[in-house]
Inverse folding.
């Protein structure tokens, strides 16, 4: 179910996520305290390559991390096995990736 | 036997699981309480006085052979070294076959899968020398040897295997005992099976399925810590995958 490859992917994505999550929360608190409106925030993120890279990486890491986690839960708690399990893992990965990519596009594209 | 009639025996309720591979149910018995009595004593009492057809397994009766483990009041225990006084609840004992293993009959489980997984984990010594070579000098103080010694006193009782929720949720998971043994060999300087063992414990049912929650360490009667051994294996497999030597 979890082999070395998936284990490494999950650890690696966690390693990437940790600082990104902290930065994300930190910036959110900072932006809100500064009294920025949604439009003002979008004004700063849209067209910003650094924010696109930041949230692009964020979405990629979340998609990898969460799909492997859901895979383990589905296998151990609901007995999902074999190709259904691989399919589920890929589906969660794809859905999170697509939804996330759309959000990143909306927030950072011009 | 005047002494025994002077003091009326205090009886306790014992529910014993009876059945086979296709299912079964608990059967109620009464057994007298005695001083320093073990769970295995109770099972033996029932088999000798109540129902001679009760099937169970034991050999050494002193915590050496690992054959007597059962579920006692819902927890896996080595029954020959578990005192009734320690686990009796409301004057009642519930004794069942070990969890996570198929039942042969009554309290006797089929441990074939358990041992097959030791083989699958390559938890056996791969010699690098022959009998014609001199004995390998082993320094007991090296970190490797200390790690191996810490994990070596396993009696193959499968108590940890019964306690493990990862095994319960995934029939392919090799489980704490086999992986613990593999870890001792990773730390054995005389062993030559490192690479193939790393592959064996890295496969789909391997050490990466462990949740590190420590049920195995909690219940191991010999106070081993398979959780820590498996954490060691995880580190070793990552190192091996990154091309670093163990
Ligand atoms: S720590 Fe790992 S091996 Fe031990 S009981 Fe938990 S999941 Fe099983
Ligand atoms: S590690 Fe402990 S509980 Fe597990 S088989 Fe060995 S002695 Fe029994
Ligand atoms: S009978 Fe040998 S360990 Fe219990």
């Amino acid at each position: 179910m979890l082999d070395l490859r998936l284990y490494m992917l999950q650890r690696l994505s966690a390693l990437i996520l940790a600082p990104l999550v902290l930065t994300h929360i930190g910036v959110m608190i900072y932006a809100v305290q500064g009294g920025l409106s949604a439009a003002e925030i979008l004004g700063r993120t849209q067209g910003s390559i650094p924010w696109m890279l930041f949230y692009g990486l964020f979405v990629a890491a979340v998609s990898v991390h969460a799909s492997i986690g859901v895979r383990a839960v589905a296998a151990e708690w609901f007995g999902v096995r074999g190709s259904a399990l691989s399919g589920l893992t890929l589906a969660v990965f794809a859905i999170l990736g697509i939804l996330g990519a759309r959000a990143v596009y909306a927030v950072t594209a011009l | 036997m005047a002494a025994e009639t002077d003091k009326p025996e205090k009886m306790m309720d014992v529910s014993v699981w009876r059945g086979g591979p296709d299912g079964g149910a608990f059967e109620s018995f009464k057994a007298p309480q005695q001083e320093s009595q073990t769970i295995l004593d109770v099972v033996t009492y029932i088999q000798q006085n109540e129902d001679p057809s009760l099937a169970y397994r034991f050999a050494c009766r002193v915590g050496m052979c690992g054959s007597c483990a059962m579920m006692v009041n819902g927890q896996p225990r080595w029954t020959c070294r578990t005192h009734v006084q320690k686990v009796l609840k409301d004057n009642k004992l519930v004794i069942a076959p070990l969890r996570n293993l198929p039942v042969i009959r009554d309290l006797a489980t089929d441990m074939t899968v358990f041992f097959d997984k030791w083989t699958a984990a390559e938890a056996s010594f791969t010699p690098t020398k022959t009998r014609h070579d001199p004995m390998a000098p082993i320094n007991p103080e090296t970190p490797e040897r200390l790690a191996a010694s810490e994990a070596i006193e396993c009696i193959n009782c499968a108590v940890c295997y019964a306690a493990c929720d990862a095994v319960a949720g995934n029939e392919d998971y090799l489980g704490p005992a086999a992986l613990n043994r593999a870890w001792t060999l990773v730390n054995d300087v005389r062993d030559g099976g490192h690479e193939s063992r790393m592959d064996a414990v890295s496969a789909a049912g391997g050490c990466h399925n462990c949740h590190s929650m420590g049920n195995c360490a909690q219940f191991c009667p010999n106070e081993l810590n398979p959780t820590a051994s498996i954490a060691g294996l995880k580190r070793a497999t990552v190192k091996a995958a990154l091309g670093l030597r163990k």
Q: What stands out?
A: The helical segments of chain A are 4-33, 38-45, 49-78, 82-108.
